[in-house]
Amino acid sequence: MRVTRETLIRIAKETAQERMYNNPDLIAAYLTGSLLTENPFLGGITDIDLVFVHTEVPAKRREIIRLHGDFHIDVTYRAREEYVPPRELRNHPWLGYEIYDPLLIKEKILFFDYVQAAVRAGFEFHEPIYILARCRNLLNHGRRIWLDLWEEEPAQIGPNEIARYLKSVHHILNSIAELSGPPLSERRVLLDFPARAEKIGRPGFSAGLLGLIGGNGVDQAALKSWLPVWQEAFLAAAQIPAVDKRIHSARLAYYLKAFEEILESDTPNAVLWPLLRTWTLSSQVLPTSETAAWKEACTQLALLGEDFDTRMEGLDHIIDDIEEILDKKSRENGVSSEGSFIP
Questions:
Q1: What does the alpha-carbon distance between residue 183 and residue 189 come to, in Å, rounded to a whole number?
Q2: Contact of 281 with 138, CB cutoff 8 Å
Q3: 278 and 141, same domain (yes or no)
Q4: Of 9, 56, 14, 18, whose CA–CA distance to 37 is shortest?
Q5: Are 29 and 51 in contact (CB under 8 A)?
Q6: Which of 124, 155, 171 marks a domain boundary?
Q7: 218 pairs with which residues across the strands?
Q8: Residue 99 contacts by C-beta under 8 Å, 6 or more apart in sequence?
Q9: Total structural domains in the chain?
Q10: What was the pLDDT predicted at 339?
């Protein structure tokens, strides 16, 4: 059966309406993510990102629902209290964009319009004061993780530390990306970041980002050779309850087919971000005996041992560069470094 964007949106609506009918605590449902774009498919696959809002704190925060074929629904569960006060969401780098322009499917009470109106009011969401606040929130979060990692001994660097390092990098790269748009989606980070860096006149950031994860020292052949061992680790980790929810057997094709398409493109190294991040998340829960291939890849990427300090120093330099960029934009727009207007 041919699956189109319209087909998946219809499935999203049917799923949300069924859930809301059977769950009195569920007060709103909306669609976000790649299906709201003109071309959501990568490798012929995309997912359905649904958000369910509950009156109380939900028992679980995320759920993957397998669909026919290679598609799945990625459900995020939120509590109503997360949207209070709604005006503060303008400063939130993730939830702010999520509520700014999703597709509302259904609500039982007057909730969505009120929250969205507060976020959008007077087009203020895209005013420099709020853009810079979101960027600084991301940069500060990334910096805190980076500072914590400095306390780690090089010999102790393993999957947990690399996962934290990648989380830091993710926040920091999005602190640049959000100067001109929403945060970057996981599979498309290295595909879309160059255009964001160009928009602020700093194309060199793309090579710098790739260098932070060792992408300048690995070729297409090596990346292709990692796919079988990555897949083995992914499927093994997906059987372990403690694994990150992104590592789910229903999401294997979502990643693998995207990897295969990227590897045959003009920018094969763009596969490294989602490949390394999901492989690291898988390795966090696997026994050491099953992470040898991951360790070998990270060694080739110069991410382990003494090389890790070099990567941390590189990240330090990029943090300083971004801080200078945000300070300059704050001065140009009359905004203080704390996010308020300069009188």
A1: 9
A2: no
A3: yes
A4: 9
A5: yes
A6: 124
A7: none
A8: 83, 89, 115, 116, 119
A9: 2
A10: 52
* Encoded tokens for 133: 């606040």
Q: How far apart are CA 12 and CA 25, in angstroms?
A: 19
The CA distance from 235 to 233, in Å, is 6
Please give the average pLDDT of every successive group of 10 residues along the chain, which has 343 residues: 91 95 93 95 97 95 94 97 95 96 92 92 90 96 96 90 98 96 96 96 93 94 98 98 97 98 97 98 97 98 95 96 96 76 33
One domain for residues 155 and 232: yes
Mark out the alpha helices in 178-219 (DSSP H runs).
189-199, 204-212
DSSP-assigned beta bridge partners for residue 107: 28
Strands 103-107 and 62-66, bridge-based pairing: unpaired
100 and 154 part of one domain? no
Residue written as tokens 């995320």? 62
Q: Would you put residue 151 in left (φ > 0), alpha (ψ -120 to 50) or beta?
A: alpha
Q: 122: buried, middle or exposed (CB in 10 Å: 19+, 13-18, 0-12)?
A: exposed
Burial 224-257 (b: 16+ CB within 10 A, else e): eebbebbbebbebbbeeeebbebbbebbbbbbbb
Question: In what order do the strands lie in the sheet containing 103-107?
Answer: 62-66, 72-79, 48-54, 26-32, 103-107
Q: Is the previous residue joined to 85 through a cis bond, with omega within 30 degrees of 0? A: yes
Q: Report the distance separating Cα 7 and Cα 11, nearest Å.
A: 6
DSSP annotation of 109 reads S
Residues 181 and 220 both lie in one domain? yes
- Extract the tokens encoding 87: 């005006």
Same domain, residue pair 244 and 204 = yes
State whether 235 and 134 are in the same domain.
yes
Q: Do 107 and 134 belong together in one domain?
A: no
92 and 199 part of one domain: no
Look at the pTM and tell me if it is higher than 0.85: yes
The parent domain of residue 101 ranges over 5-124
Compute CA distances 327 → 205, 232, 321, 332, whole Å.
17, 45, 10, 9
User: Which pLDDT value is given to residue 342?
Assistant: 33
